[in-house]
Amino acid sequence: MDMEHAPRHTLWDMTWTELDAAAHDIDLVLVPVGSTVQHGPNSVFSSDAVRANEFALKIAERLYPRVLVAPVMPFGIAHHHMSFPGTISLSPETFTNVLFEVVESLAEHGFDRFLFVNAHPGNEAALDLLLGRLRNKLDLSPAWVSISALASDDAQAGGRGEASEHAGQNEISQLLYLAPWTVRTGALATNELLEQEYPFTSPEGPIHVAYTFDELTTNGVIGDARAASAELGERIVTTALDRVCTFVKVFFDGDAF
Ligand SMILES: [Zn+2]
User: Fold this and answer.
1) What is the pTM of this model?
2) Cα torsion at 67, 145, 140, 64 (round to 10°)?
């Protein structure tokens, strides 16, 4: 085993015989969910997928040996970023079908508790629908969580909701702590916001309009990454980890459902 990190179960790093031996200890499968999406000049296309994966690994280390991390989903719903070159988007149908079949496969091997760890706001509406479908069709009671939203009310963590910024101080700070190789520290920029066409609309509402990112910001950023730091990222991630682990310890039992 690689000794640079605490012990953890990750499917891609195990053989089937190792999984078979560990399966009786595993109560929960984490499915990290990301996106391949522009993050302005501030960080690379893998930012959401890597952030979701690294956060899931931290949960698995804290709760070893009871958690298994499935392979990260690298694609999300990102039509609203398509005017920036390089972005890849799935349709909501494809996205939910892939994740449904990932869970269906693992359920066939006897796993019955699933938590999607999401780092891309564009996926959230589809994840809600996916939970209902998994419950109705497979009789599972999965959950999904947004990393930033877990700490969004924590002033000490400087938290903000996932949809309130994109490649801003919160997200870039998390990346500086979890995955510094994704951040272009010499190029960190603030947003170049555009006036929105309709009153009372924003990515967070209260009135929802299907804006595309190029209608909101010229450089692809919402928020200000210039004040990002690994220290802030560590505070956000630690708050989020404490809270998700509190949830998971109850969720293991399934009695709440
Ligand atoms: Zn992101």
Assistant:
1) 0.94
2) 10
